[in-house]
Every structure is written in C-alpha cells, then in structure tokens.
Amino acid sequence: MSDASPRAGWTQPAVVALAVAIAYALLCSALKVDDVDRYWHELSANSFFWDLGHLWMQPLAMLLYRGTGGVLGVNHTLEAINVLSVAWGCAVFFATLREASHTVLKSAAAVAFVAVSFNLLALGPTAHIKLMVFPALALALHHAMRWERAEAAGEPGERDMIASAAWSAIGVNLLVSVLPQAMLLALFMLILSASRRGIVQAVRGLLPYAVTLAAVGFGLLLAAYAAARLTDTTPARDLLAFTLGGLQEKQELKTWLSSWKEMPLRFAFSLINNFAFLPSLGTLSRAWMWGWLPDVRAVLPSLLGQAALAALVGGLLLATFVVGARDALRKTQPGLLSPWAFVLGAAAFSYYYNLNDPEHWFQFTLPVVLLVLQLHRRWLDAWLLGVALPVLLVVNLAGYGIPKARFALAEREQALQAALGSQGLYVGFAAYPGEPDSSLLNTPGIERFNIDLVQMNETQADAGALLARLDDRIDAALARGGRVLVFRALDDADWRGPVMQVALAGLPRAQLRAHLAARYRISGPVDAGGFPAYELRAR
C-alpha cells in the first residue's frame, strides 16, 4: 500500500490532475474532429442522442450542459468534460502507481507518458467527448489492482471487487468496447482464486463481482431506455428493440477480418500508433508495397524517421509483453493479472472491430504503462521513461499537439473561402484523416464534391458513375466562372484515409488523375487556405 501520509494521499493526485488539466486546456484546438460537429449540434438543439456503443456519453454531456446552465457554451462545455476526464483519470492512475509502491518521480513520469500518448493527445484537448470513459477505466483498474493484491495476500477484497465491477459497468455504458476488459478480469481473478481455494469457493467469491457488473450495467441500460422514452428521443417500442437496434447499427461499422495476412500487421501498427504520432507510415508503406507510390524517394526521409520511432515504441511493447507473459505465468508477484486483463480485453475488441479510430485504442494506454512498471525491470523503466518519454514528448507535441492547438481556424477558413470564390467547387474528401485538414474547414455557400461520400452513398463504388457525376459538377462550376480546386486526391505523397479506402473500393489515384487530365488542364499545387490543392481548368 501507499507509503505516503493520508494528506499526501490526496494532495499529490490533485496536483497531478491540475497539471494535466492546465496542459490539456492549453492544447485545446478550434478544429472539430471526427464526431465533434454532431455533438455540437445535438447540444445546441438541446436533444438527447442514444447510441448503444456510447449509451450514456452524449446524454450525460447534455445533462452536464443543462446543469451548468450552458454558461461555457456548447464547445467549451464539451472541451471541459474531455479535459477534466483526462485529468481525473491521470490522477487516479498516479494514485494507483503510488499504492503499488512506485516513487513519486516515477509515478509522475509515467503519468506524463500517458498524457503525451498520441491517441489521448488526439482526443483529449478537443470537444470529442469519448474520453468521458477515461476516469471509469482508471478507477476500474485501480480497484482491480487492490483486489488482486488482497487476493494474493489472503485478505478480504470484496469492497474493491465490487468497486471495480461498478466502474467497469459505468465504463461500458459510456463506451461498450471496454466490456471485454471487465470480463477478462473476472476470468483471471477466478483462476487466481481457484488455485488457492478451489473452483467452488472461487466461483462463490466472484459472485459479488458478476452481480455488480450485471446490475449496474443493466440498470444504466434500463435507465437510458426509460429516459429515451420519457423524452421521446427513441423510435424503439421496447427495451429489446432499443438494445438490438443499437447493436446492429454498431456491427455495421466493423470490418473485422479483412485479411488474415494483413490483420496482425494492422493491429501492431495501430497499437504503436496509440502511443506515437505516425502520420503516414502505415498508408505510405502500404501504397509502396502495392505499387501505388510512383517514387518512394520523395517520402523516404519521412518514412525512415517514422519507422525508427515505430521501432522504438514497438520494441518496448514487444519486450513488455514477452517479459510480462513469462512473469504472469510464473506468478512471481501480484499486480500483473489486472493490467494483463485490461490489455488483452482491449486487444480482443480492437482486433474484432478492426478500426483504427483513436477511441478504440486509448484503452491500452493505462494498462500497458502499468504493466511495464509492475514488471520491476530497471531496463524497461529506463526504456519507457528515459528514452520513449522524451522522444514522444517532442514528436507528439511538436508534430501534432502544438500545431493543432495553434491552428488558426477562422483565418484559414477565410483564406480557403477566398481561394475558391463564391462560385467555386471544392473536390476532396469528407472523412477526417487524423490531423488538420481542409475537410474540417467550414466554407458556407461553396459547393463541395466529397469523393468518399459519393462513392459510398450515391454510386455504390461504381467508378464510372462517380467520375461522370464529378465531370458534371466540374463543368458546371467552370461554366459559371468558378474555380475548381482538388484537395489531396491528386497528391502522390498523401495516402492518408480515406484515400486508401477510395482506391481499394475501385478508384485509385492514377485512374482519377488520368481521367481528369484527359478532360481538363491540371496545374499546381497551389496554396488554398494553407493546404496544397490542384486547380482544374477547361482545355
């Protein structure tokens, strides 16, 4: 247990929370990434939205917004929820490390590593409220560690068992992808208990955990359905339809086993990318391997730098998992099963769902860092805190966090508006590629042709039909004297999503360029709102 005084027991985590909150508040960006625009409009409309994958997330944000009287405004309310959630989770993690007898300095450095990890940095200083689950995850892990230590010492740990289950159930209602972590924790603790007391006693001892998880989880589901019916914000006639409809909607998003050969590499890359900012390593590597990258020499320095960073983080992860698996099997010390349950639970969902969204990977951050420190290997600690931490601090902040925070959204939107003109046509993509992009800029009154949306929703991957529609829109814009600018779709060095997905669905860049070059004069790149674009003119 902690060697700190009772007063230090809460003052130190409070200082950690304050430091993280200030840092993340300073890194907040005006960019509305991913689902932020949807949350913004939902809160502006003062309406609940019930999504089973994140059941209580938006409704809880709505209740907090109403409870504060909207004094911060919609965007700042959402940002405050996210920033405070990260700060609270980091404070709990600091307390977890201190109770596990790690020093103040090591615990603080570990929290810094967590806070600077790429996916937390990508989501935290924004109005993207998926990190509302972060404190629940941290608390579930915190009490799981206490429970595991008590079990190993033969002491009563029922209170922490119940607390871990309750926080896990709350987490599941905020982000359903955390459910496998709670289930694996129960399995591991059952095995640990059975080895000491026999299977019958172990099952009996685990009943409070199972009952709490089910009761809190189902209770919150039932409360969500009741609230949805009372506020007339769901078309579901009964609880079963409410639940199954939400499950079906989330299942339609998964890609799962797209390729048996590609999946392990994709999983490994996504896990590394959770910690390190690798803006184009995965996409450029795949484009090069598939022969879509005309000249790799132009991007070789960037590829080599990102590959070196990936090797640094990937090596740390591999060493941790190898040593951690060996120590867990040997049962050398308590405090390994809990982080392993959370790591493998996150892996189970991420491998199944197979999407590289940050919200599906940040669940690895706390348990991985905890696992490294619980192995008590000085060389692993040095690798994590002495090498990886300063490198990620520089790369993630200088390459992503600070530029995103300083992004002059209003000025860039005005510049893009001026570059296109009132009669112009924007040709590009709607999906967010993971960093500042012209697709995030609001250009009211300017026509847009989003290739990815048209391909997916309108032409059903019929490349001929898509190109015909694109020609019609371009010809109409040129006929009215408008300027036509193409963003990212003709840039040979840019293979970030959804460029790759569009190519795999039947429209590779070479085909698009050949088609446009046959009909129009292509010039550029030119600067448009701070982004490179190619201009199309009539022949």
UniProtKB/TrEMBL annotation:
<feature type="transmembrane region" description="Helical">
    <location>
        <begin position="77"/>
        <end position="97"/>
    </location>
</feature>
<keyword id="KW-0812">Transmembrane</keyword>
<protein>
    <recommendedName>
        <fullName>Glycosyltransferase RgtA/B/C/D-like domain-containing protein</fullName>
    </recommendedName>
</protein>
<feature type="transmembrane region" description="Helical">
    <location>
        <begin position="303"/>
        <end position="324"/>
    </location>
</feature>
<keyword id="KW-0472">Membrane</keyword>
<feature type="transmembrane region" description="Helical">
    <location>
        <begin position="104"/>
        <end position="121"/>
    </location>
</feature>
<feature type="transmembrane region" description="Helical">
    <location>
        <begin position="43"/>
        <end position="65"/>
    </location>
</feature>
<feature type="transmembrane region" description="Helical">
    <location>
        <begin position="383"/>
        <end position="402"/>
    </location>
</feature>
<feature type="transmembrane region" description="Helical">
    <location>
        <begin position="12"/>
        <end position="31"/>
    </location>
</feature>
<keyword id="KW-1133">Transmembrane helix</keyword>
<feature type="transmembrane region" description="Helical">
    <location>
        <begin position="336"/>
        <end position="354"/>
    </location>
</feature>
<feature type="transmembrane region" description="Helical">
    <location>
        <begin position="166"/>
        <end position="194"/>
    </location>
</feature>
<feature type="transmembrane region" description="Helical">
    <location>
        <begin position="206"/>
        <end position="228"/>
    </location>
</feature>
